[in-house]
Specification:
The structure holds 2 protein chains of 2 kinds.
Chain A: E1 7-12, H1 16-27, E2 33-38, H2 41-48, E3 62-65, H3 74-83, E4 92-96, H4 101-109, E5 114-117, H5 122-139
Parallel strand pairs in A: 1-2, 1-3, 3-4, 4-5
Helix pairs in contact in A: 1-5, 2-3
Chain B: H1 2-5, H2 7-29, H3 36-98, E1 100-106, E2 112-114, H4 116-122, H5 133-139, H6 142-158, E3 162-169, E4 175-186, E5 192-201, H7 203-254, H8 261-289, E6 297-300, H9 301-311, H10 313-319, E7 322-326, E8 331-334, H11 336-352, E9 361-368, E10 372-378, H12 411-421, E11 426-428, E12 438-444
Parallel strand pairs in B: 7-9
Antiparallel strand pairs in B: 1-2, 1-5, 3-4, 4-5, 6-8, 9-10, 10-12, 11-12
Helix pairs in contact in B: 2-3, 7-8, 9-11, 11-12
Classes of the chains: A alpha/beta, B alpha+beta.
Chain lengths: 144, 453
């Protein structure tokens, strides 16, 4: 399935519970994904720039970004990613508990590729992750 | 005065003439007697007596006339004085009550005149102070002096009305806040001749305004804090909740088949608790958001009610409910989505709190009450006991056990908040029969929407 044999997904999420749910959902999907999990914006930028322990980090095909992060907010991290010409082309999907208008508007205006509110129950959560994969790895064309 | 002055002369002449008459009569009566010398003497005496009497009468009359004229003139003067004094008192009282003072300055000579009120506001004694614009500027707070001087110069140069708030320092050191206005006064040819000014002591008003500003700022701050709280609640409370719910489901999945009746029930309780908690949080959020994201415009109540009915389609079909509307649904100022929610909550309640085995009948009635619309939503359900008529609008207030009727107790609190934000009132109508509930709300026709943004 998909154009690539393996997709690298960078998950920026501080809640290990939610990160676990994403991992479980991806494990159950029919795409082959490697999930790279970082817990805050600083580590995310280090991963993208291959700093420190992330020397071997691959360039992600897709970034899943939580808004509610410790320190720099998800919006700020998004702004930083979009401000860097090296990473500007990577699709960033916001995964957030917030369904607040202002969060959604702000995310899109900062260049989010799409905004997904985390569903309450696990089935819906898994389905949401699967539909993200279906769209970005199946339907959409990603930059090479 | 001339006529009056010559009165004694005229009197003497008249009196002399009168004296001649007895002299002539006597002369005629005794003309045969050889006593012409005596006669002449008597005649002369009577004439002189007449003159004397006439002179005296004239003098007395003149005095009386003079006194009368003086009295008349004096009265006029008094009346004039009176009127001037009364006008001054009136002006002075008006200025005192309004805390106003006025002044005029002749542009040609630079001479100034101040009213009593003007002196009083500056705290100066009219007896000991010569009005002048320099004297006035001396009273102005040094920090405001340049601005006042400039604004007065502008009034003269540009010939238009100016106004300014400024501070003065009274001789006793008290600082007062004044509002001053000045305008050029012109003569018949339109030439600027005077600078007319009034000053008003607004210290109290300013203090109250500052107090009000402070309160408004405080209100804004606490409002913003509340919004922040609601926002945080939506994230930070729901996030762990979702994790709990999700992992319980995953556990349940993993343990499929190895759960006994008890443990299966525990799982159900956990999941149910999570679901309820989530509803509470979302409802609380909805409640706190009423008025925050709203945009008031002309909206159709009929459309709002229709849209609510569409959203409730599942519940309506499930309960076999019928919904009727009577009267003319108005166009009103309000927020579309809030109005939809209002109808949704009211109609939703009417369907939810139904009697067993009796399909709900919901009646919406629109009524024009002159300055407001009155909308009632009635049903044939279980009704609200009169003692709870107030309570139902409180947040998280529930009248029924959870196993009877599901809910968080926020629906009517939201409805109340929406109605009140639009200037209306919502209440439970007292029951005439034992049948159902009637909720009415009013919606004012003309109203500047409260800006909640």
């Amino acid at each position: 399935m998909g154009n690539k044999a393996m997709y690298d997904v960078l998950l920026i999420e501080d809640d290990p519970g939610d990160a676990g749910l994403v991992r479980i959902a991806m494990r159950r999907s029919h795409y082959s994904c490697r999930l790279h999990h970082v817990a805050d914006g600083g580590e995310a930028m280090a991963f993208l720039r291959r700093h420190g322990s992330h020397e071997q980090a691959p360039r992600p095909d897709l970034i899943l970004l939580d808004l509610n992060l410790p320190g720099r907010s998800g919006h700020e991290v998004l702004e930083e990613i979009r401000g860097d010409s090296l990473f500007r082309a990577i699709p960033v999907v916001i995964l957030s508990t917030s369904g607040a208008d202002r969060d959604i508007k702000k995310a899109y205006s900062l260049g989010a590729s799409s905004y997904v509110a985390k569903p309450m129950d696990v089935e819906a959560f898994t389905a949401a992750i699967h539909s993200i994969e279906d769209f970005w790895f199946g339907t959409a064309q990603l930059p090479a | 005065m001339d006529t009056v002055g010559t009165l004694p002369l005229w009197g003497a002449m008249f009196g002399g003439g009168l004296g001649l008459l007895p002299a002539a009569l006597m002369g005629w009566a005794v003309r045969d007697a050889n006593s012409s010398g005596t006669l002449a003497a008597i005649g002369l005496v009577t004439v002189l007596m007449g003159c004397g009497l006439g002179l005296m009468a004239g003098r007395a009359f003149r005095h009386r006339l003079k006194a009368a004229a003086a009295a008349r003139a004096g009265r006029l003067e008094d009346i004039y004085e009176d009127a001037v004094q009364r006008a001054r008192a009136l002006l002075s009282n008006a200025e005192r009550v309004a805390q106003l003072g006025s002044s005029e300055r002749q542009l040609e000579t630079g001479q100034s005149a101040w009213s009593d009120g003007f002196f009083a506001i500056l705290g100066l004694d009219p007896e000991q102070c010569q009005p002048s614009s320099t004297r006035f500027l001396d009273c102005v707070h040094p920090a405001d002096r340049a601005a006042i001087e400039a604004v007065m110069a502008k009034a003269v140069q540009e010939g238009r009305r100016v106004e300014e708030y400024f501070r003065i320092i009274r001789p006793d050191g008290e600082i007062r806040i004044l509002h001053g206005r000045a305008e050029v006064g012109r003569d018949e040819q339109g030439k600027a001749v005077r600078l007319d000014s009034i000053i008003q002591d607004v210290t109290e008003r300013k203090r109250l305004e500052d107090e009000l500003d402070g309160l408004i700022r405080e209100l804004w701050r606490s409002n913003e804090e509340l919004e922040q709280f609601a926002y945080v609640a939506s994230h930070d409370l729901r996030q762990p909740l979702r994790v709990v719910g999700s992992y319980v489901s995953l556990m349940e999945e993993e343990l499929q088949g190895s759960l006994n009746d008890d443990t299966q029930e525990y799982m159900t309780f956990v999941r149910d608790g999570v679901r309820r908690m989530d509803r509470l949080i979302t409802d609380l959020l909805t409640y706190s958001r009423v008025g925050r994201t709203s945009t008031d415009q002309l909206v159709s109540m009929a459309k709002a009610a229709e849209s609510a009915v569409t959203d409730l389609q599942f519940e309506i079909e499930d309960a076999g409910a019928t919904i009727h509307a009577t009267g003319d649904p108005p166009m009103v100022m309000g927020d579309q989505s809030e109005m939809e929610r209002l109808f949704q909550n009211l109609i939703g309640n009417a369907i939810k709190y139904r009697r067993p085995n009796q399909p709900p009948e919901v009646m919406i009635h629109y009524e024009d009450q002159g300055d407001a619309w009155r909308i009632s939503v009635s049903d044939n359900g279980i009704g609200i006991p009169p003692e709870h008529a107030e309570r139902v609008f409180g947040i998280f207030q529930r009248l029924h056990a959870r196993n009877e009727f599901e809910g968080t107790g926020v629906g009517l609190a939201i409805a109340k908040k929406i109605v009140e934000r639009h200037g209306g009132v919502i209440k439970v109508e007292p029951r005439e029969t034992n049948d159902g509930t009637t909720l009415t709300f009013s919606w004012p026709k003309m109203r500047a929407p409260v800006d909640a943004s």
